[in-house]
Design a protein that fits this description.
Belongs to the peptidase M20 family. The chain is α/β, with parallel strands linked by helices. Helix content is 35%, strand content 22%. Strand 3, helix 4 and strand 4 form a beta-alpha-beta unit. The chain is globular. It starts with a helix and ends with a helix.
């Protein structure tokens, strides 16, 4: 066990939050135990998808599931399920969980908190002698972060049958290994991976607890918040073609400078989201300049615009505005423009009825309900294209994530579990 993490979690824990079967020390111990697997020199976590470290963390979670009396299975994509039978096992199950893989030097809460929280609900029921109406399953999805193949949420996509297997088999990982080599080393096969698809009629709802990875809850001084929707990204690849030339001998009036045009668009991108909604965002985070010489006017510039919103209509409106601005900028400039849409994932709005239920569960814990969008993708996003989903955020210190400094206090984590428990019990009757 990571004694330092366990000590830090317990140091300021308010034991009054250990109640109704939810045990704060058990939560801290489990977070600390997983944190020992793939511990980096910087004090972070390295458990990339389909690695021995991710597999070892899943094995640890499976041991907890078995100790809690769950029926445990692992599919060909490495997704782990622990099922608690309900009073009526003919009803579709409530699915709850997240992932245990990390970025190469991540923190100890991203994903893991969702898994530990989902399992703690079962242990609390066990102590209280509560049997849910319908089955409840804890899930650990494989390779959510995408650090292995630069293509995330692999496990949840496999469960849903949303993977193009020809594309998947063509992937190579960060070490140059093929997907088939990686999945074989993991202990599965391509054939078993393909058979991971599940009949989603067996699932009534998916709930994911996750750290916020932002500062809004911290600003509001609240331990938990309700996710109103998960933003769906569009990625536009824009290439501006101009005319390379000597920086000293080409007059300013005779230049066809694609970098100048691109820089105009970048400024527009920063201002446009507020014109469509208060949840829309747009980012230029990657650019290639050619020939990229200090004393050369560029001949070609490619930039990538990441556009997100939780409502598809306003997001697509923003996409159109950015396209229009780019075309307007190059008009009569001598610069040509080529636009490709590299990615288009539909957003997942959380149903109002579920947001209302979550508000009741949060209020029941004496916490003021706060609603916010999720700009980042989570396993709940692909799952939400098939069944209803809900998400609960737990406060992140300084908004830091994907970093060894990632931190959520045990007080906040345990309050999140109390909300989750109350909410799942309400869902059981829906």
């Amino acid at each position: 066990m990571n004694q330092n993490l366990f000590h830090d979690l317990m140091e300021d824990f308010d034991t009054h939050f250990t109640k109704d079967g939810v045990n704060g020390e058990r939560v801290a111990r489990r977070l600390a135990e997983i944190a020992t697997i793939g511990l980096t020199d910087e004090g972070g976590s390295r458990r990339i998808g389909f690695s021995e470290e991710e597999k070892k963390a899943k094995k640890l979670v499976k041991s907890w599931m078995e100790a809690s009396g769950l029926d445990v299975r692992e599919d060909g994509a490495g997704n782990v399920f622990g099922r608690l039978q309900g009073q009526r096992n003919d009803l579709p199950a409530i699915l709850c969980g997240s992932h245990v893989d990390t970025v190469p030097n991540g923190g100890h809460f991203d994903g893991v908190l969702g898994v530990v929280s989902a399992l703690e609900v079962i242990d609390s029921w066990k102590e209280q002698g509560y049997t849910p109406l319908r089955p409840y399953e804890v899930v650990v999805f494989s390779d959510e972060e995408g650090s292995r193949f630069h293509s995330g949420m692999t496990g949840s996509h496999a469960m849903l049958g949303d993977i193009d297997m020809e594309t998947q088999k063509g992937l190579t990982d960060i070490n140059g290994l093929s997907f088939e080599e990686v999945i074989n080393d993991y202990g599965s096969t391509v054939s078993d991976f393909e058979q991971a698809q599940r009949n989603m009629n067996e699932v009534a709802h998916f709930v994911e607890v996750h750290i916020e990875q932002g500062k809004e809850l911290e600003k509001a001084d609240l331990p938990v918040g309700i996710v109103s929707g998960i933003a769906g990204p569009v990625c536009l690849e824009m290439t501006f073609y101009g005319e390379a030339g000597h920086a000293g001998n080409t007059p300013m009036t005779e230049r066809k400078d694609p970098l100048f045009a691109a820089s105009e668009l970048i400024q527009k991108v920063h201002a446009l989201p507020s014109q469509v909604s208060d949840t829309a965002v747009a980012t230029v985070g990657k650019m290639h300049v050619s020939p990229n010489g200090v004393n050369v006017i560029p001949g070609e510039v490619t930039l990538y615009v990441d556009i997100r919103d939780i409502v598809v209509e306003s997001r697509d409106q923003l996409v159109d505005l950015i396209r229009e601005q780019a075309r307007s900028i190059v008009q009569n400039s001598g610069v040509e423009l080529d636009i490709h849409n590299n990615l288009d994932v539909a957003p997942v709005p959380i149903k109002e009825v579920n947001q209302s239920l979550l508000k009741k569960s949060i209020s029941n814990q004496g916490i003021e309900p706060m609603v916010m969008p999720s700009g980042a993708g989570h396993d709940a996003m692909p799952v939400g294209h098939h069944v209803p989903v809900s998400m609960l955020f737990v406060r992140s210190k300084d908004g830091i994530s994907h970093n060894p400094k990632e931190w959520s206090s045990l007080n906040d984590c345990v309050q999140g579990i109390h909300v989750l428990k109350d909410y799942v019990e309400r869902l059981m009757d829906e």
